[in-house]
Amino acid sequence: MAIEFISGCKAAAEAARLANVDVVAAYPITPQTSIVEYLAKDVSNGRLKAEMVLAESEHSAMSACVGASMVGARAFTATASQGLALMHEVLFYAAGLRLPIVSVIVNRSLASPVSIFADFKDSLAQRDTGWLQFYVESCQEILDSVLIAYRVIEDSRVLLPAFVCMEGFVLSHLSEPVDVPDVQTVSKFLPACDPKYPTLDLKDPKIFNVMAFPDTYEEFERDKQISMLNAFEALQEAYQDFEKIFGRKYQDVETYRVEDADIVLATMGAAAGTAMMVVDQLRSLGERVGLVKVRTFRPFPRRQLREILSHARVVGVLDRDLSIGSTGILFQELQSSLYNQPQRPLMQNFIAGLGGRDIHQGTIGAIFQSLKDTLQKGFVEKNLNWPDENREVLSIWGLPVDHDD
Amino acid sequence: MTHPWYKSRPFSAWIPAGLSATHKVGDRKERPVVDEAACSMCGLCWIYCPEGIISRDARIQINYEYCRGCGICIEECPKHAISFEDER
Ligand code: SF4
Ligand code: SF4
User: Fold this and answer.
1) If you count Cβ atoms within 10 Å of the first and of the last residue's Cβ in chain B, which end, N or C, has fewer?
2) Would you state the pLDDT for residue B19?
3) The model scores a pTM over 0.95
4) Which of A200, A222, A246 corresponds to the end of one domain?
């Protein structure tokens, strides 16, 4: 075990090495590129004994991961943005074939206009593909989450692929002290790959991906749904073991000072760190505010969130994404989770940080102010809010500053 | 609903290999056989075989491991030198 000063990309590459992956298939894309570079170097200098497949596109990279996983190899890839969009078709195959592949997503917005900076649009657009999704806050959490992901998805109760998502540049190119465990310690937590699913085998030939007719297709979907929900159990066990071995504690939903909070802000990813600081500042002024960080987005921890949030009076959801024509995606999920509660909070959605705009203290302070106003009024005046809009551009373009969904 | 794989979870859509486990191509009811006495070595069957598995060195030879039994060679032979024989 050694504390190293490394970036998010390096932490992801170190995690893949520690997971002792057999196959890395990838295509470089900003801001993921250095993950592939680190792994290529590790493979070429013998630090990692793996097959490095430098594919001609992300569609091929994911196809190579599917093939590798089908022979029972532990497969790893990483991508972002346009690359993830190009993988889209194959993501369904990976999930449907029940292959435990891990892909690190270095979140970046999608063109057009071209942007290389962070928001969650790329991975959230893949939310219905049957992949687990984890959103992390620090470089340490990236490394840990890749190990946890392999352990959970290789469990025969789950057998589905997983994304570990970090915000581009915000985490991928930020260097932090990271506790990099040694291989022996990791092997206590994550045993060697032992596929618990039918694999390609010359001695026992099989035909994969056969057609399902209307009498069975629905049940295949249902099986994936059940397995996805089973992941909660596997995750709890993994978190407990992880804490025992490494001393770090994770939860599907992480809370900060919510116990007696009237106002709770919910978000995902790196903004949670900034929000915690703002919560502390407001608490010192006597405001009863708290924070919820959704770490596991798929499966969506509906029950846990219901328990945590139904005591709050106002809940704000900070989305670094937008489902154009509706609201933020986390907001939709949270609002629908709470709908059947006899007592439910007022809810407001805040869109910020798109295309890499910094989510700073001021943004979060404005959000809490707006939530406080809502608490005092007792009703939600504006469902969808843009707390950090660029008013200059809006006025040049003649776009309304005030509009509601 | 009688496949053994329906009994095991989690489901991924696979079935035990049938013919492909024992055959290089799918099942073939009949095989084309060349009557060497009638053959003029014109090479038309060699050209037309969609699988490209007819060879013509000293004589015409069909690679039965890959022949699909489509009968195109029979249709194309100007000398009617190829005919089907039952496989079973
Ligand atoms: S039957 Fe068809 S596949 Fe077989 S040798 Fe003739 S043309 Fe080729
Ligand atoms: S087409 Fe008929 S005659 Fe010509 S080479 Fe083939 S078998 Fe012989």
Assistant:
1) C
2) 72
3) no
4) A246
